[in-house]
């Protein structure tokens, strides 16, 4: 990861887009983890999602923040792979589990053990704008492996309309980020998933009804 180019990209490109063009609002920002290890879990509708969450951190803190992203998508060509790993600093996730020779969650576990703040999108892929899909259980396996690490739920709204899946043109739209209270491994996969889902849905319920 090239920390200098990464900081420059966020300072010159990403922050102006998020804060000026989109006017991103953040609710309960004081709940964000400021140091790792920690796991952030959020709903996912747009390529803007990871950038928006990373913008919540200062240049110094950004060195310790890494989003998890699909290797098969971001490693499609050399340029995109370089940008994803050196500028965005993704943790590549191999989604083809059946053919993988290595635990696909191993890079995530390694980042947590290095005290990184890991951003995860448990839906696994970008869904329809402003629709929350069923969460996959990979995050439960990660939390079970790290039961003392905080999991911070976040609900994001508007990014799916600002830059929907399959679109390349940014559309100015009101965007909000709601940060929830942290929680930890509950001791059982089903109850953990229920806890996470319930907390993100509760954050979604904080949205004024007329803005949907």
UniProtKB/TrEMBL annotation:
Alphabetically ordered keywords of this record: Acyltransferase, Membrane, Transferase, Transmembrane, Transmembrane helix
TM stretches of this protein: 6-26
Chain ranges of the Phospholipid/glycerol acyltransferase domain: 38-159
Record pathway: Lipid metabolism
Positions in coiled-coil regions: none
GO MF terms, alphabetically ordered: 1-acylglycerol-3-phosphate O-acyltransferase activity
Matching CDD domains: LPLAT_AGPAT-like
Pfam family, one: Acyltransferase
Cleaved signal peptide residues: none
Entry's Gene Ontology BP terms: phosphatidic acid biosynthetic process
Protein name, as recorded: 2-acyl-glycerophospho-ethanolamine acyltransferase
Phylogenetic placement of the source organism: Bacteria, Pseudomonadati, Planctomycetota, Planctomycetia, Planctomycetales
């Amino acid at each position: 990861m090239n920390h200098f180019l990464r900081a420059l990209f966020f300072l010159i490109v990403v922050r102006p887009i998020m804060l000026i063009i989109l006017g991103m609002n953040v609710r309960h920002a004081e709940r964000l983890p400021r140091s790792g290890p920690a796991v952030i879990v959020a709903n996912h509708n747009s390529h803007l999602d990871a950038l928006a969450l990373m913008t919540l951190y200062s240049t110094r803190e950004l060195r310790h923040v890494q989003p998890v992203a699909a290797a098969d998508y971001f490693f499609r060509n050399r340029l995109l792979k370089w940008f994803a790993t050196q500028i965005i600093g993704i943790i590549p996730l191999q989604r083809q589990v059946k053919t993988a020779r290595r635990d696909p969650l191993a890079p995530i576990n390694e980042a947590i053990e290095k005290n990184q703040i890991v951003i995860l999108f448990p839906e696994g892929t970008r869904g329809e704008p402003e629709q929350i899909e069923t969460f996959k259980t990979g995050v439960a396996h990660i939390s079970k492996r790290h039961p003392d690490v905080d999991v911070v739920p976040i609900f994001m709204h508007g990014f799916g309309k600002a830059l929907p899946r399959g679109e390349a043109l940014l559309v100015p739209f009101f965007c909000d980020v709601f940060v929830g209270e942290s929680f930890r491994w509950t001791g059982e996969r089903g109850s953990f998933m229920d806890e996470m889902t319930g907390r993100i849905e509760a954050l979604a319920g904080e949205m004024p009804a007329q803005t949907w």
